[in-house]
């Protein structure tokens, strides 16, 4: 597995979102779960695949994390790991 600069950047953005969310909130939990998935994946699609198989996370948190990965990838240009980046873990 090769983690790209793009997924590292997206993971950092997810951690920033988590840091700004209220402690213990669903938003914070989802952002941290998204950050972990992005840190482990080589693409945003790979992070989504990881989240889909992550059965230990509550479904609502998993869904929110997947939605956040999608939002983050739409906000970042493809050259930096955004939505146009293809591939999976």
Features:
89 residues; mainly alpha; globular
Describe the model:
This protein is mostly helical and 89 residues long. It has helices at 5-20, 26-40, 44-53, 59-75. It starts with a helix and ends in a 14-residue tail after the last helix.
Compact description:
By secondary structure, this protein is mainly alpha-helical. It has four helices and no strands. The protein has one domain.
Number of helices: 4
Q: Helicity range of the residues?
A: 55-70%
Alpha-carbon Rg, integer = 12 Å
Mean pLDDT metric: 85
Overall spatial form: globular
Task: Characterize the biggest β-sheet.
Answer: none
Low-confidence stretches: 79-89
How many beta-strand elements? 0
Helix-strand pattern: HHHH
- Total tally of structural domains: 1
Terminal CA distance reads: 6 Å
Query: Which strand-content bin applies to the residues?
Result: under 5%
Q: What structural class do the secondary elements suggest?
A: mainly alpha
List the helices and strands and how they pair.
Elements: H1 5-20, H2 26-40, H3 44-53, H4 59-75
Helix pairs in contact: 1-2, 2-3, 2-4, 3-4
């Amino acid at each position: 597995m090769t983690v790209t600069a793009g997924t590292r950047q997206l993971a950092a953005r997810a951690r920033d979102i988590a840091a700004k969310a209220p402690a213990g909130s669903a938003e914070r939990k989802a952002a941290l779960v998204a950050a972990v998935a992005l840190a482990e994946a080589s693409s945003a699609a790979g992070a989504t695949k990881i989240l889909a198989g992550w059965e230990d996370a509550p479904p609502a948190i998993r869904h929110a994390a997947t939605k956040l990965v999608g939002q983050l990838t739409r906000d970042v240009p493809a050259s930096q790991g955004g939505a146009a980046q293809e591939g999976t873990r």
